[in-house]
Amino acid sequence: MSKTGNTIVLILITLLLSALVIGCSDNTVVNHELQNDISTSDSSSDLTNGQVEILRMSGGDSGYPTPWLRGRKGGGNRTINLIYDSLLEKDDKSIIPWLAKEYEILDGGKQYLFTLRDNVIWHDGTPFSAEDVKFTFDYTKDFPMVESPISSTDIENVEVIEPNQVLITVTEIGAPLLERIGKVRIVPKHIWENVDDPNEYEAENATVGTGPYMLADYNKSAGTYKYEAFSEFWGPTPGAKILIRFPVSDGVLALEAGEIDIVRHVPNDLLEKFEADPDYKVVVGPALSGSRLLFNLNGNSLLNEKSLRQAIAYAIDTYELIEKLGRGIGEPSNSGILPPAHNMYNPNVRQYDCDLIKCQELFSVLGYTEQDQSGFVINEKGERISLNLLIGEDSIRSAELVKEQLQRAGIELNIYSMDGSAQETQVREGEFELAIVGHAGLGDDPDYLRERFCVDEEMGRASAQMATIGYYNEYLFTLLSEQRMIMDFEERKNMLYEIQEILAEEVLEIPLYFGYDYTVYRPANYDEWIHEYDARNFTDAKLSYVLYSQWNEKQ
Amino acid sequence: MIIVNRFLEYLLTFIIIISLNFFLPRALPGDPLIQLTADTYDGVLKMTEEQRIYFRDYYNLNLPMHEQYFHYLRNLLRLDLGKSIIYNMPVAEIILKKLHWTSFLVLSSIFITTIFGSILGAISAYFRNRPLDRVIYTKMIVLSEIPAFILGLIFLFVFAARLKLFPLYGAYSYYHDHLNTFQHFKDIIHHAVLPVISLSMARIGSIYFLARNSVVSVMGKKYITTATAKGLTKQRIIVKHALRNAMLPVVTRVFLSIGALIGGTILVENVFAYPGLGMLMQEAVSTRDYPLIQGIFLIVTLLTLSANLIADLVYKKLDPRFS
User: Fold this and answer.
1) Over 60: is that where the pLDDT of B101 sits?
2) A77 contacts in chain B (CB < 8 Å)
3) What ipTM does the predicted assembly reach?
């Protein structure tokens, strides 16, 4: 008995310890042999035409960097966009040609003719051709990539016209399609045509692309990535010989300690300190994110009243929200929904600057003419305007402030808080009256207005996950459906101006304010950071990692 | 026979746990694909409705609950823990790559809390109600009230950021390929110091109080009076006679607390960006990654059950009356 006991104890302890020992063994995936040792490299030294030895970034584990195996959370795209190219890219002003040196929109938007660059080669030395582009679009019909901006039903046919020309025919004309087709990551036909299931394919050649960097190492255990500049890259010189990404505990501390070269999401309180220090540079992209207040018109019949929605808009003081939530930094909300930084923004829509007298006038229209002892407005039956606000754990401060502001106007607000995921499900399923949700990507194609406000007949609600529910307006829906078919920029802009006017008048949701995201870096180490024209983030832009300004001047 | 009965008890517990393991994450409101495409944060995943349907199919999320359950059981019998939705990798592989880091923190922390907690407990008991005891006792009360992650944050700011004595993050220095095996080992230890101390300091109190009480009760026994009468040194009396006999409840507590300790590492690992199961678990729950939640909980369950089994066996070993 004693011997058996001893043996079992020994086995169990050995099992526990073996987990440790096994784990300590090398578990990295190395694709290309590297001689460099980053510990001895200094990013500020040995500059060759602006290219630095090494660039260090913070970032978590986002899976194995192929278009099918990358992780599904935010950041997965960062791991693959340096390896794989797309037909088009974006700089801080517009869409630019990338693997396609030029493109033509034919037949009023039904066809797109892409002429590809010459002398592009894959990381394994194989020449790139139009066949690879056709293959990518055909292959992703059967096997959608983790993230694909385009649906297989959007594409009718992909045809190789010349070895360097592809003609893509779409099923339905759509203004956002050029950008979306242009974003698809092109993969090599000679590798993937032999792969039966890309969702399982993890071989060494799975990370062969045409991009400026090759994957040198991905460590699954620590979630770290190492990239090596591709010396035969067709385009601008890669900005660093080596680029590494790894998780850090606190980005600001790591930047100050010289462990990383750039940090995002710097708290507003620290900006002054960095701005005063010549070693650092503080940059900010356009204000393209923020929180918004959603309405469920089915959740509370009072919300069907436009006057009440307008009164709520008048009650909310966006400047106070900026002052208290954004520590004084942010853009005031816009009732036309699109942020001022958007290229289709209409500055002349009706705005609702905080005005409690106008609130009272609108309450009177609804029959709420008196006030009770607590200061809430009441109707002749003595009923208050009492609304329920559903929030995730991140919005508690905004919710408390909104509650205070509505209370000042005479509206009672009850806050219900839950974890973010649960709140999102409740909002999607329409189980709310009012909800505050965050939103990024407000610089995207304005077709997101259609996704948010135009009710999809099949779904019975708007197709966006987080949308106002229960609003019907045939005229608005027609405009929203038609704007995406208009290929002429100015004509589409005019229609979107009208849409924004209607949205501002109807108050279908209330953006609370638009926030900035400050980035700090050491310019002496590397100074090529850029954001895409429709995004605020400097570290996600592919062009940040190549010497784009030099290249652009030469073109 | 006792061992067989014990084994059956553990088996039954295991079956109940794997079922709970399946149903609990699904009882949480939320859906992994909604969470990932909810447009509420930066870098959100853009999926068309068609792709969402494809991936719901791919992860069997469209099947009725009972069918998903049978799939889960069948896969489990084949030792297949499924594929993580957020990481897009086999769950077993992810866990295996992270488990050793958490085991390392947990085992080191257990070692430190047991040794120091017991010794301090014994010293306190020997000098009961004297100034030394009061000082240790008060310090331990304060320490045991501070959560490990708060200690971790303080240590991070003071010892890593300000004094630069320890690294700011990670389990080892990433991409420092020149290190030899010994230097690599030293580097791992160096990175583990702050997380392990944070975990240990937050938990040492419970071992200390248990050891102190246990030693106090032992100190009243006649064999201690005999040892004192024999003129043995204080150290010998504390270590050889008092502590050894008082260790029984301490050992049990140590093994029983392994599950809780793994839970406690979640926040500490997040503070130090330590690549263990804790960070993984936090991410899995917040994104409702069902296969990953199931996998992690299964492993934690197995470790906890194994620890309990070891506790049973060690208990018998330490106290022959239970054999």
Assistant:
1) yes
2) 43
3) 0.81
